[in-house]
Amino acid sequence: MKGTVVDKIDTPLPGVTIMIKGSNKGTSTDFYGNYNISVAKGKTLVFSSIGYQKKEVLVKNITGKIVLEEDTSVLGEVVITAEFGLKRVKRSIGSSVQHIDGKTIEDSGRENFITALAGRVPGLNIGSTSGNPGASTNVVLRNITSISGNNQPLYVVDGIPMNNSTFDPSGMAGGGFSVRDMDFSSRGNDFNPEDVESITVLKGAGAAALYGSDASNGAIIITTKKGKAGKGTVRFSNFLKFSNAYGYPEMQDKYSNGAKGTTNYYYTSKYGGLYPEDTKIYDNIDAVLQTGVQERYNVSVEGGSDKATIRGSFSQLNETGVIKTTEYKRTNLSLSGKAEITDWLTFEGALQYTNTGNNKVRTGTAGPLYRAMLWPMVDDMSNYLAEDGSHMRSPEYYLDDDLLNPLFGMHKNKYYDESDRFISNISLNITPLKNTFLRAQVGWDVGMQTYVTSTHPYYANANAGEGQYNLVQSNFSDPTINIIGGYNNKFLDDKFSFSAQLGYHQVENGVTRAASYGSNFIETDFQSINNTDPLSQTAIQRNTTRRVQGVSGSFEFGYNNLAFLTLRARNDWSSTLPVENNSYFYPAIEGSLIISDLDFMKNNEAINLLKLRGSWAQVGKDARPLQIDPQLQQTNLTGGGFQYGFTGPNPNLKPEITTANEIGVDLGLFKNRVKASFTYFTTENSDQIVQGFRLSYATGFVLNTLNVGTFKTKGWEANIDVDVIRNNDFTWNVGVNGSQGSSEVVSLPENVTEYYNSYTWNSGNIRNGIMQGESISSLTGRAYERNDNGDILISPTTGLPITDDEWSIIGDREPKLRFGMNTSFKYKNFRLSSLFAGRLGATVVNGTKRYMMERGTSWESVDLRESGPQVFTGVIRDGNENTDNPTQNTIAVDYSMYGSSIFTGGDEDWLEKDVNYIRMQELRLSYRLDDNLLKNSKLFSQMNLFFVANDLFTWTNYSGIDAVGNTVSAAAGGTGGEGIDVWSMPNPRSYSVGVSITLN
Questions:
Q1: How far, in Å, CA of 436 to CA of 433, rounded?
Q2: Phi and psi of 205, rounded to 5°?
Q3: What is the reported pTM?
Q4: The pLDDT value given to residue 604
Q5: Would you tell me the crossing angle of helices 847-855 and 859-866 to the nearest 10 degrees?
Q6: How far is 551 from 555, CA to CA, in rounded Å?
Q7: What pLDDT is stored for residue 644 in this prediction?
Q8: Spatial distance between the Cα atoms of 671 and 676, rounded to a whole number of angstroms
């Protein structure tokens, strides 16, 4: 007998257990709700699934569609994957937890499961460094917890931590690169979204406490597909995607290169005279862009019995980006399965292999968009080769700066990384006695990576460079061991329940890195370290190992399946901290109460679920390797020897501690047609491990890693999901989520007025600066000087506003609200869904427009020079500014008289505040061929056709390129570069078409 199991609105139900009554023979439905089981007529099949009423069906025909009804009596009994791959009943969890089905990730159209989560989970903030293929991603759950350390959550695959590191280009032997102009892939990009069975987001420190130090920022738990019981199934799917860049500010084409209104191509700025009539103008920004194309194929094979299942898959992704020469390729192979060896022993295992290759370009003011802006608009930049076919062509017009043609660099330079990676895990589950279990799990995440940057000798002023080549071989090896024993039972007529869990855990992060550098190419067009002058070659090797060992315990008490209390504790020993401080203990407590199960609520038909929950937890966080004693370097003195560099040792370092509290409520109304939740949280982040902290030179060092500072955060998150219409033929669902957070720095050392992230110092003197009493996401800059009444002070000699010599708070990057909205329609076999994400009340640094104003390439600069003399509002700084009668400014400033640059204002002028934006993240239309059309097919059992559009448009009052803005790679860590837009490359608009086929 074969058929499909659906709910009452005809949605296929995967994972439904189907047993022949009176026997141990059975199967389960596949991802699309299909089943196939050999059974004689007259037998009875029993269909069961958590959250649905059990159904018995007498076998009469060889095919059939089975409809299961929701079981409201067990509403809230959803089982989720929690710590170390173990299962927990959601109603017993006292902290915020969100579950996302793997089908949602697969349908998103994204090649990266991380970016597919954007807009779906309240409190989950996902930022991509750019819209280029293979860009790094920075993920923050709720709020930042570390000023300069890691703020990303722990990624766990089938109970094993997954390495999500991003290479820091400053580790190259030749230097010259940083996280502000070079971005390499995050290793989380390696994972194939179509291998995901489900994702559980553990946002609270209490929910993730058992994972220890690495989960201090929360955890994202990924369960992979391991096959379904039943007849073997083969599935094939493919995507074909086209992408285009959009949203760039318009370049003015009215005034030519020059100064003071006079055309002169000696200048790169465009403050010259008017272009002569009929002058041919070239779009040099467009010259570096193209239509991006992505092809993605996925094949999976699975099958098995009720005793054992197996699944294998292959996926291939090939992508060219919207910036010319950018490419990304990824190959995924996976094999996984599970088996019931005996009644007391089960086995699970998985092996994944990933190969990636990524051609990229530099970003920010080192990137092609900025350099294309500088190229004369009367010259065709796309013609980048000189007549000899090898040198870089200069513009047809003389320029003092000898401009670099970005297209020559894009085709002749090399910015590349490739990776081979294996993630494997094996687990054995033993039930030696009734109500007990023992789980032993071993995992290994190992990767071999190569990073290359090469600068062509002719990509230099006057084509007179030597060429540079950087090569880094970086391997990581992360073995993991988890041994967990547990007991659970019910007592006193099942009124009381108790479960206990004790574990030993060990995780290791080993990195072996060798970097080589050489210059002065021997053969001009041969890019290899072997082609550089041996006398120029240098090499650096750096090996680090971090090991954390821990013991944990968890004890859960339940009463009548409606009240739960969980006590947790863990102690870690970290190798990156001094021996005196390397042991740290942290506890947690959480509780939940199902009010809707109380006697006075049971007969309330409108309220199906009302759950109150709360938690308190502490989580420790250790340091990175080589923070106690930094890597030594050669002294270069007679007799040799080694010494510390700019950074000194700290033998007294201790762990950061995050203390988190949260309370919340979960609600289900009107037969579960309305689902809602709300959470309020606070955290205190103390003993911050701040890297690169500046010291007095009298100490003998410039920098150190210190425990300095404490800050607090608070906020809320909420979501509501409503089935507006729900019947057999048509359904309409709407979901909305939102979150808001704020922070305050409680303490910094007395002699420190500001700690700042130097990598965010990219637009004037604006940077992410942290001051006591202010937010950790604040922006500092040199504001205008003002008198006691707040009036701007004006220079009596220039008539221009005067900027302060000291940095002060001028804005806060954290928006007032982050939100997501999704809606879906289903009519018979048609499905239409959309997803929006946005922010309200954000502050964005418009560094792009600032550079355009400075260079005279924006229409705003045209308006200024044509507006005539201007008088800035303020008072003259003449000694009377703080008297009762300050001198009002009357000095006129004539912008048309400026030379090769223009007064671009102060830092305050380039903050756009109260920025609102909403982006259409996803639009999907799919059609599942009717079963009647395929019933006679010997080849296909199911076929789905779909169209997906991503990042279709953005509504915003922001005038720059990207309202999200991110000026640094995820490798920077700390507070990141969100909200700073300096020639960003936002996510392009893309369209995908595809088909998903299930073979008989």
A1: 6
A2: -60, -30
A3: 0.88
A4: 86
A5: 50
A6: 14
A7: 82
A8: 13
